[in-house]
TrEMBL record:
It comes from the Bacteria. InterPro entries: ECM_Assembly_Org (IPR050525), Tad_N (IPR028087), VWF_A (IPR002035), vWFA_dom_sf (IPR036465). SUPFAM superfamilies: vWA-like. Residues 149-415 form the VWFA domain. This is VWA domain-containing protein. Gene3D superfamilies: von Willebrand factor, type A domain (3.40.50.410). Keywords: Membrane, Transmembrane, Transmembrane helix. The keyword Transmembrane helix applies.
Length: 426
């Protein structure tokens, strides 16, 4: 091949290579468009997710704050306040996009519904034709509290006299009552019962003629005759000698709350008091002075029977006998709670001093309460069967344990606020 021809061929190949590079660059540029768009979309959706979280928090907060002030402000004032609350809790692009919320105020059912929308401008995702991403949030709240019935089943056994436990329990209980009183907006919206327990419980002797009581328990005392022989003297409890103490019902009713109490085995056995200074039960009431007096009257005495405390806590929350003041479980917006507190292990009931056997009854009593729809909090004060109380609680978070009696007040404060606080309904 001649040299000039070879040179021409080489020039042609160079031009071809140059043309191929140009095509590759063009093709690469086209391919980068969706890649940039997808990358941009990922970044923009991340920004939108952050804006959504911010909006959710702002709307939730506004709904709760509005519920708190619903009784003090008019509808127009509430709407203005809600919009200001939301705007104040937004920043950056979210704040620029927000204009106003959609607000519904239902004063009959005490419900506030808040909805808000944002449009987050995109940046790189615009190459794919998406100029903004819609973000929405809604929340609903109620003002005041639901109707509450709360039983305080409190260990009043002798061991509560040690380590300042009884004084701390009284202080914590009085603080709880104060919080619940302050949370009440209407008459009888929150009612509380107080159930001091040891091996027995005690009720007012004015109930001696109630059909749910039975008087057949006996008490035997021993004395020596003139010749030194032991003489047994057995007497049966009667209405005139009864001072208000009640022991465990016959099994299996000792762990139940039969609303219909008529059959012999369902009756409550009036008994001689093993602990004469045991404070009586105060049924459900919103008389805050009566509740304060009931707490102050508690004294530590006797052995531990957690079963009877749980069973009578449940009894105060059930509409049927022995107390009839509780509302039906299916009452709208009604919530029932029990706080079961003890500092010791089971030691004695009407049937046995075998703690393990009594534990089995306690488990069943707690389950009966939970099955009925009662939310059970349990509190272990320094000592007691941890596993038993953990299992008695409705959820793990409703079990509390204190290693120092002084810790009872903050625990009761937390429980009181959990029960009484305004909550988001959805």
């Amino acid at each position: 091949m001649r040299v000039p021809a070879m040179l021409k061929r080489l020039k042609w190949l160079r031009r071809l290579r140059s043309d191929e590079r140009g095509n590759v660059m063009v093709m690469f540029s086209f391919a980068m468009v969706p890649i940039i768009g997808l990358t941009g979309a990922t970044i923009d959706y991340s920004r939108a997710s952050e804006a959504r979280m911010m909006l959710n928090s702002a709307v939730d907060s506004a709904a709760l704050m509005a519920a708190r002030d619903a009784t003090k402000l008019s509808d127009s004032e509430l709407r203005e306040r809600i919009n200001k609350w939301i705007a104040a809790n937004l920043s950056g692009e979210a704040a620029k996009s927000f204009t106003s919320a959609t607000i519904s105020i239902d004063r009959t059912n005490r419900i506030i519904t808040v909805g808000a929308n944002l449009a987050v401008d995109t940046s790189l995702a615009r190459v794919m034709g998406q100029n903004s991403i819609a973000v929405a949030s809604s929340a609903q709240s109620t003002w005041g509290t639901n109707t509450i019935e709360l039983a305080l089943a409190l260990d009043n056994t002798g061991s509560m006299a040690s380590s300042g436990k009884m004084d701390a329990l009284k202080a914590a209980s009085l603080d709880l009552i104060k919080i619940m009183k302050e949370a009440t907006l209407t008459t009888d919206q929150i009612r509380i019962s107080v159930v001091p327990f040891a091996t027995q419980v005690k009720v007012s002797t004015s109930l001696k003629d109630e059909s749910w009581l039975r008087f057949d328990q006996t008490q035997t005392t021993w004395s020596r005759d003139r010749w030194g022989n032991w003489i047994a003297n057995t007497v049966t409890i009667n209405k005139s000698s009864w001072t208000g103490c009640i022991s465990d019902r016959d099994q299996p009713n000792d762990v139940k709350d039969n609303e219909s109490v008529s059959a012999y085995a369902t009756l409550y056995p009036a008994d001689f008091c093993a602990q004469s200074t045991l404070a009586p039960i105060t049924p459900l009431t919103s008389d805050w002075t009566a509740l304060t007096n009931a707490i102050n009257a508690m004294t530590p005495v006797g052995n531990t029977n957690v079963t009877i405390g749980a069973n009578w806590g449940m009894a105060t929350l059930t509409p049927g006998a022995p107390f009839t003041g509780a509302k039906a479980f299916n009452t709208p917006r009604l919530q029932k709670y029990m706080i079961l507190l003890t500092d010791g292990e089971n030691t004695q009931n009407r049937f046995t001093t075998n703690g393990s056997a009594i534990d089995d009854r306690t488990k069943l009593a707690c389950q009966s309460a939970k099955d009925a729809g009662i939310r059970v909090y349990t509190v272990r004060v320094i000592n007691g069967d941890r596993t038993l109380l953990q299992n008695c609680a409705s959820t793990p978070s409703m079990y509390y344990e204190v290693s120092n009696a002084a810790q009872l007040t903050p625990v009761f404060q937390q429980i009181a606020r959990e029960i009484s606080q305004i909550r988001l309904t959805q």
